[in-house]
Amino acid sequence: MLLARLLAQQNQEHITSLEIERQTGWSQSLIRRDISLLEIRCGSSNGYKIRELSEAIKSALIAQDAPDSQRKCCIVGLGNLGAAFLESAMPADSPFVIKAGFDFSVNRVEILKASFPLHPTSMLEEVISTENIEFAILTVCENMAQSTAERLSSCGIKGIANYTNTVLSLPESVSVENVSPLSALTNLLSDFLVSARLKR
Amino acid sequence: MLLARLLAQQNQEHITSLEIERQTGWSQSLIRRDISLLEIRCGSSNGYKIRELSEAIKSALIAQDAPDSQRKCCIVGLGNLGAAFLESAMPADSPFVIKAGFDFSVNRVEILKASFPLHPTSMLEEVISTENIEFAILTVCENMAQSTAERLSSCGIKGIANYTNTVLSLPESVSVENVSPLSALTNLLSDFLVSARLKR
DNA sequence: CGGTGTGAATGCTTTCACAGCC
DNA sequence: GGCTGTGAAAGCATTCACACCG
Question: Is the distance from CB of A101 to CB of A74 less than 8 angstroms?
């Protein structure tokens, strides 16, 4: 199962898997398979009904065990980077809500504004457990990364989006997605290198 | 080949694959295989020599066709997010150098400071081709994402780190890494969902 | 027909397991 | 004995190809 986050930025009513392939580069077979294991049955010879499809994708992600409809997450580290995410990170109709932001500096926490509460990092454990936060966006500075991640992990956080260049070392109960520019570019580069090697 | 960017934040002289597994969660077999296809032979019963290993990784990424040693990249879009990356994005010893930043607003370009030149987006094509830039970090706002990506793609950019929530539709000659918070969290969540499903 | 849904085939990635080296 | 390097096995993800449905 790949990701299914096309989330229909379409303005049609129906879409065919072939059309999705053209727009995204993911192969039509793969798209058909992924959609099929949502176990809805909204396709016909005009393609999929976009409305039903995006509905189904969202509800697959939101799912059973979350009592209210969205997954809760937080931003840890409100330097330039973290602060940049405060506003823009999560579109309202996404399966996630940001419930809190944290920064080491009390000052910083007071200066910044957001549509959710900001706390000093000392309250990390408390807020995460009372709010039932499941995921974290990690934007602290290099030298705090590992230790902060450990604290998150011991609160029972399920996943961390790591915007840090540090390679985190955590128990396997928490999964990490490395999304710093360095990480992203390294992936792109090695993609490029293998495809270059294949051509020879 | 997975990624190989542990880049030795170690302070030992040797390291065993088992130790890497503990620190990163990537399995030792995989690590051994990845390292082996670097075709260096720097292991023994004390493990790998860290110095030689990280050397080899870097030179594998830097590689043949780049005349000077680092891959060139640029930041496109200097809103809060792009600006946050200006300073911190690329450590000096990485296989990448940032050679330029772009923003639509001439004003913005003049206000911000960086260790590399900033240009208005109108000069995108020109700068990229004269500087021979290969990769881009895309941090423009939602509604510019697709059109800007198309311009990048037609300059022959090889890869885009997409910090935008937009799903880009580009020719397959350019590869895209989706690294917005929404994207990252969605991946984490679907990870979590499948592992939960397996346990049942 | 055009396009989905899905077994069966393919091809990659990851792990196993063990020979060889320090 | 401990650890690497690597064929061979197992496990996943992706694609093929075709029956079936609107």
Answer: yes
CA distance A139 to A76: 6
Longest dimension (CA), chain A: 59
Q: Is the pLDDT reported for residue A17 higher than 60? A: yes
Structure token pair of residue B90: 């690329």
d(CA A30, CA A17): 9
Q: d(Cα A146, Cα B94) in Å, to the nearest integer?
A: 20
Distance CA A156, CA B183 (A): 21
Residue B71 structure tokens: 């891959």
Phi first, then psi: give them for residue A48, nearest 5 degrees: -90, 145
Q: Which residue is nearest to nucleotide C6 (CA to C1')?
A: A33
Which residues make Cβ contacts (< 8 Å) with residue B88, sequence separation at least 6? Answer: A80, A81
User: Does residue B130 carry a pLDDT above 70?
Assistant: yes
Quick check: A47 CB within 7 A of strand C?
yes
User: Does residue B30 approach strand C to less than 7 Å at its CB?
Assistant: yes
Cα separation, A181 vs A184, whole angstroms:
5
Is residue A50 very low, low, confident or very high in pLDDT (cuts 50, 70, 90)? confident
pLDDT in tens, A109-152: 999 999 999 999 999 999 999 999 999 999 999 999 999 999 99
Among the ranges given (A41-50, A74-83, A156-165, B14-23), the one the predictor scored with the smallest mean pLDDT:
A41-50
> Nearest-CA neighbor of A72 among A159, A144, A178, A145?
A159
pLDDT band at A8 (very low <50, low <70, confident <90, very high): low
The answer to whether the Cβ–Cβ distance between B5 and A160 falls below 8 Å is no
CA of A3 and C1' of D15: distance in angstroms? 18
> In percent, how much of chain A has pLDDT > 70?
90
- Residues B52 and B14: their CA atoms lie apart, in Å, by 10
DSSP conformation letters of B29-81? HHHHHHHHTTT---EETTEEEHHHHHHHHHHHHH-TT-SSSSEEEEEE--SHH
